Amino acid sequence: MPKLLTSLAILYFLVLVKSHGKTKILRNNYAISIHDMVKLIDYEHQLLDILQNFTNALQQRVDAIEYYLYTTDYEAEKKLPDDPIKSFRIIRRLHSDYLNWKWLMEQQPWEPLVKHIIAIAPHMPTLKDIEEAFNGLRLIQWTYSLPTAQMAEGVLQNIHHNTSLDAMQCLTIARHLVKLKEFIRAKEWLMVGLQMHEADEDNEVFYSQLGMPLSDFYELFAEIHDELGTRYLAMSELRLAIKNWPERVSLQRALSRLKVNIRIGKEPAKAKEKSEGVYNKCCSTECRPSAKLHCLYNTTASYFLRLAPLKMELLSLDPYMVLFHDVVSDKDITSIRNLAKGGLVRAVTVTKDGSYEEDPARTTKGTWLVENSKLIQRLSQLAQDMTNLDIRDADPFQVLNYGIGGYYGTHFDFLADTEMGNFSNRIATAVFYLSDVPQGGATIFPKLGLSVFPKKGSALLWYNLDHKGDGDNRTAHSACPTIVGSRWVMTKWINEREQLFRRPCLTTL
């Protein structure tokens, strides 16, 4: 393996040179939907197959050369030949063999392989994908208070998963945290990565060829400690790094900056305070504001429910909120997800000027189910039976799939007065859970101290408007970051326009 590292680096360099300016990178937003990660798995297997073929071709050459050195009795041939046989062997080899070896060394067996890599280059993740994946990990760590060392080892909420990060990935996370000026957390990730790198010191050539030599770790170490105010520690480590890597100009520049900051007495960066409250608590454990509520069979919302009642759990009476259990079958869930998979696009928000833009507080992809199929009709009837509301003016079903650390920031479903226009306000929201989520992914109502963890086949219903028809601020809600699993939900927004005789507005109760 080690003797092929330089050749692999040459292949990587050739790909960069040949693909530069010839490929158009697509905006795939891989980190925004776990479903789309399937594509990356396929692409990575293609790349690994190409690299394996490349190493096989190089290994054949290495084996041929080593065998040639063995047949020539390389060490012994340095002696002056003392018989005609040896003399002839040398003359023949230098007359014929050197031309063949010259030809072999001039051949480039990687050319067709490079073309294969260039073909999939437009589908590779971009810097934006890296940043969004990092943001997902950062949000998971903050929300669930995960220790850095455990998270790097794949231990999430005391559950060990069959995965871990390596030194290069820890360095990447530390660099992004430095950009956000979160230096204390950046220091934690860097030290974990540095320990991993030093434990693997025999493969320093490997890290250097992939663009992350040990000197990069020490350079970032000095930058972080410079910002934190521990500058003399940074100074000693930088000088040691410069002694080991005198050719690194960036280390000299870092030392110059450090000396200036020591001389002028630059103030250290202030640590960002971490606020823990209801949000963090109820994202980690399921919260219920009252123990007096109970479960029942709903048989009154429609005539059909007399024959097939719904299992209903009361969560709150004011505002009204219930959780229905086992309302969507596995068969229907599979059909819904299959309908949605081909149309998933990044969720956007509407700005004040009517344009659409990406919302960093909404890391999910979604699509609308507007097909007039029997499945959709049956689901619409189910929504009406569950809510006892008229759904003729309701929005279509929206299916969402969340990404790495996928979440939805705290928001209201009802429309503000300035947003209304000719629209009818959303009187109620129904969220159908189309998958189990092993860790994370709860729907949380911070002002109510209430959270519901996804359970496949269940549905959460709440009223967004109070009895006067005004928006109820207590219904502010969020989707907690998904830690493990693929969070699929389907939302139905029911509007108030058709509810005159179902739930009329009242000035008083």
From TrEMBL:
Signal peptide range in chain numbering: 1-19
Molecular-function GO terms, alphabetical: iron ion binding; L-ascorbic acid binding; procollagen-proline 4-dioxygenase activity
Catalytic activity, EC: 1.14.11.2
Keyword entries, A-Z: Dioxygenase, Endoplasmic reticulum, Glycoprotein, Iron, Metal-binding, Oxidoreductase, Signal, Vitamin C
Cited InterPro entries: Oxoglu/Fe-dep_dioxygenase_dom, P4H_N, P4HA-like, Pro_4_hyd_alph, Pro_4_hyd_alph_FE2OG_OXY, TPR-like_helical_dom_sf
Needed co-factor(s): L-ascorbate
Entries under SMART domains matching the protein: P4Hc
Pfam families from the UniProt entry: 2OG-FeII_Oxy_3, P4Ha_N
Keyword Membrane among record annotations: no
Domain of life, per lineage: Eukaryota
Main location, first listed in the record: endoplasmic reticulum
Cellular component, GO, one term: endoplasmic reticulum lumen
Subcellular location: Endoplasmic reticulum lumen
Coiled coil: none
Fe2OG dioxygenase domain ranges (all copies): 393-496
Task performed by this protein: Catalyzes the post-translational formation of 4-hydroxyproline in -Xaa-Pro-Gly- sequences in collagens and other proteins.
Family to which the UniProt record says this protein belongs: Belongs to the P4HA family.
Protein name: procollagen-proline 4-dioxygenase
